[in-house]
Design a protein that fits this description.
mainly alpha; 56% helix; globular
Length: 345
């Protein structure tokens, strides 16, 4: 789902609604997952669901690299704006610190510009924009259309929004050098279909084979498939089932659509990669002893380590429960439900 500017603008002034929209308090870790086993730096890639735990841990404990990761994934980009403001206030003491400060500002602004939640902030604070990062942002269409000369076409190939990718066609940029990288972008399938004659399969087969939207192209070119990358493709299960001798099982262990194949072949599971598989929670819970340090790091990035916190949702409804019941069960409404029209007062 891409950015809805009107809805985002509407909620900015309402803290209760804003918290509901961002939703990070709706999530909690599954009961079998201990927070202390997780890797904080990797957990930051999961910021949409883990922000409550990050706040609880303390922003003041984050290092520069962790702030950089957070800037790309946080649903609260104003936190990053404050961080950048504080970073600019620091006065470097030597050349190394001058370089470090400049580098940290550039990298953080680049990742902030990639953040799909940050568009409303970037529209208001265009001095924060890094155009290399913004070109990858799926919600950046308006800004890109108004600043065509600033588009970084090499970065736009990674933008998942088909409307943004249509800029390649609009400005005649569908050259072979861009099609190679576009081959792995599931949002670029219409461009690839229109320019099949330009596809260099020798180079692009790896990228196309991992693209969930390119299955119909792969089915017509079975001899050109890269089976290692196809093992990662969640839309290619029917091809993998029919060619199990070609499966790369360590890669397949991370494929969210391949759980039934993995359950039938438990001896071929690569547990480190399975830890990143969103569909594998039941297998991981039953085999927690097989998760090593690297596996816990992989698991930290898995969005399914969180589940909806219903107790929080029920508690939050206490704020309006009494008022809602008074309105819903007011005698005037009750009469409309239960009494004939001629008996109503």
């Amino acid at each position: 789902m891409y950015y809805n500017k009107n809805f985002k603008m509407e909620i900015e002034s309402n803290e209760f609604t804003k918290d509901y929209f961002n939703g990070y308090h709706r999530w909690k870790l599954r009961d079998w997952i201990p927070f202390e086993k997780l890797d904080l730096k990797t957990l930051l890639f999961n910021s949409e669901r883990s922000l409550y735990y990050i706040e609880k841990y303390g922003y003041d404990k984050l290092d520069g690299d962790e702030w950089t990761i957070l800037s790309k994934y946080t649903p609260e980009p104003n936190i990053i704006k404050k961080y950048l403001e504080n970073l600019k206030l620091y006065k470097p003491q030597n050349k190394d610190e001058i370089w470090s400060q400049k580098h940290r500002l550039e990298v953080t602004q680049k990742y902030l510009s990639e953040n799909e939640y940050a568009i409303y902030l970037l529209e208001k604070n265009q001095d924060l924009i890094n155009w290399w990062g913004l070109s990858q942002n799926p919600n950046s269409l308006k800004l890109l259309e108004n600043n065509i000369s600033w588009i970084k076409w090499k970065e736009l190939v990674y933008n998942p929004n088909p409307e943004c990718l249509n800029l390649f066609k609009k400005y005649d940029k569908t050259s072979k050098k861009y099609l190679i990288e576009l081959s792995k972008n599931k949002g670029a399938i219409s461009l690839l279909e229109e320019n099949q004659y330009k596809i260099n399969w020798h180079i692009s087969s790896y990228y196309l084979s991992v693209n969930p939207s390119a299955i119909h192209l792969l089915e017509k070119n079975l001899d050109k498939i890269d089976w290692h990358s196809l093992s990662e493709n969640p839309s290619a299960i029917h091809l993998l089932e029919a060619n199990q001798d070609k499966i790369d099982w360590p890669i397949l262990s991370g494929n969210r659509s391949a759980i039934h194949l993995l359950e039938k072949n438990p001896d071929k599971i690569y547990w480190r990669n399975l830890s990143s598989n969103p569909s594998a929670m039941h297998l991981l819970e039953k085999n927690i002893e097989k998760i090593d340090n690297i596996g816990w790091r992989q698991l930290s990035r898995n969005p399914e380590i969180f589940e909806i916190d219903y107790n929080f949702l029920y508690g939050r409804m206490d704020i309006i429960r009494d008022e809602l019941m008074e309105k819903a069960w007011h005698p005037s409404r009750f009469q409309k439900w239960c009494l004939p029209f001629d008996e109503m007062e």
